[in-house]
Design brief:
This protein has about 375 residues and is mainly alpha-helical. The chain folds into four domains: about 10-65 and about 315-380, Annexin V, domain 1, CATH 1.10.220.10; about 95-110 and about 115-150, no CATH class; about 155-225, Annexin V, domain 1, CATH 1.10.220.10; about 230-300, no CATH class. The protein contains 21 helices and three strands. A three-stranded antiparallel β-sheet has the order 1-2-3. Strand 1 and strand 2 (about 365-370) form a beta hairpin. The longest helix has 29 residues, at about 225-255. The protein is elongated and about 70 Å long. One of its GO terms (molecular function) is calcium-dependent phospholipid binding.
Length: about 375
């Protein structure tokens, strides 16, 4: 998919096409998926903002009232800014009567950059008038509460320059906190894994294996159990190669025995930004026999519409545009990939705040971007 924005006319035409798919009895799901499945998060941010401005309610609300099931889940997901999707997932995770859904919370918080975490905390508090730390304190317990609260500090030393002595010190500290004692110290491991720079952690893990002749992952598997073990392994894998870890999770999600594919839907929504998706695919294709696209096409889904939508969003299916449609501009989408494009994807990583001013009116769409996960999709109220 392309990263360039839609023109104002393209935004307006797309909105009218979306509304047309949901007029009358039933929804034309095939047309709807062709529209939503070929738009990048940047383009969806334009569509969402204009939709709310034109009709007084959100695209998410309209789709929620018309489309249901697994296909409805993914359509609703792409109709939200990715950061809002993650914040809603956190909210959903903490609605359980007793212990929260650690799977959801881990997906959103663990292994993220300081910028990711700060963006999540800010958006969550703005939307729900409550701090993320407060719900974690209420709904999580023990070591998992400590882990999540440490992640939420957003205190990873991302710019510090580490020395060889720092590496040796952390190797020794990890050993003393784990293998050197009968009862391993979760707190020490949490502090190091959640606060050290990723490159430094990679060096620490290499040094640990070189000194003790075993990977630190095997130590974690031996000394810890349950959710805290799982999350330590996620942090280690994220530090070693974040995109390889995500590719591994995609593989698990694709090959699940559940035809509902709820995890695959979540990962598709979160990681569909073109520049990020390309890195995940490269890692996937380097580590598995079948390519990312082949694996997706072989998966068994609860319905064909959901599968087709996922293939489009993950850029593993091209849609054909006939001459008449192209002339009318109805299916002309900048979300369709152009292999010859020389557009620069780096702005996905580098831009933080960008104002897009539309020529024909005074509307301004404000968009905030996270440097690693969130594309330019955080939508604020128009002034």
């Amino acid at each position: 998919m392309s990263n360039i924005y839609l023109t104002q006319d393209e935004v307006n035409n797309t909105i009218e096409e979306i509304r047309a798919t949901m007029k009358g009895l039933g929804t034309d799901e095939k047309k709807l998926l062709r529209i939503l499945g070929t738009k990048t998060p940047k383009q969806m941010s334009q569509i969402m903002s204009r939709y709310l401005n034109n009709y007084g309610h959100t695209l998410y609300q309209h789709i929620s009232s018309e489309v249901h099931g697994s296909f409805g889940n993914i359509c609703r997901g792409v109709s939200l800014p990715i950061i809002e999707f993650d914040c809603d997932l956190l909210r959903e995770a903490c609605k359980k009567t007793f212990t929260a859904n650690y799977t959801y919370i881990t997906e959103v918080l663990v292994g993220r950059t300081n910028h990711d975490i700060k963006a999540i905390k800010s958006f969550y508090e703005d939307k729900y008038n409550e701090k993320v730390e407060d719900i974690i304190n209420r709904k999580c317990y023990g070591d998992m509460k400590k882990l999540y609260l440490t992640c939420l500090e957003a205190n990873r030393e991302e710019t510090k320059e580490y020395t060889e002595e720092d590496i040796i010190e952390d190797v020794n500290t990890l050993y003393q906190a784990t293998e050197a004692r009968w009862n391993a110290s979760e707190k020490v491991v949490i502090d190091i894994l959640c606060r050290r720079q990723f490159q430094h952690l990679r060096n620490v893990f290499y040094a640990y294996q070189n000194k003790y002749k075993k990977p630190f992952t095997s130590v974690v598997e031996k000394k810890f159990i349950g959710p805290i073990e799982k999350n330590f392994l996620i942090l280690i894998k994220s530090a070693m190669n974040r995109y390889q870890y995500i590719a591994e999770q995609f593989n698990i999600a694709i090959n699940t025995t559940s035809v509902q594919h709820t995890k695959l839907i979540r990962y598709t929504i979160r990681y569909r930004t073109p520049a990020i998706l390309e890195l995940i695919k490269d890692s996937y294709n380097n580590n598995y026999t079948r390519t990312f696209g082949e694996e997706l096409n072989n998966a068994i889904f609860i319905d064909d519409r959901t599968k087709e939508m996922i293939l489009l969003l993950l850029n593993e299916k091209k849609i054909k545009i006939n001459k008449k449609e192209e002339d009318n501009g109805k299916e002309k989408s900048r979300g369709i990939p152009n292999e010859d494009s020389d557009s620069n994807d780096e702005d996905i990583i580098d831009d933080r705040i960008e104002n897009i001013k539309e020529n024909n009116d005074n509307e301004t769409i404000k968009i905030v971007q996270d440097e690693d996960i969130y594309p330019k999709i955080q939508q604020t109220k128009e002034e």
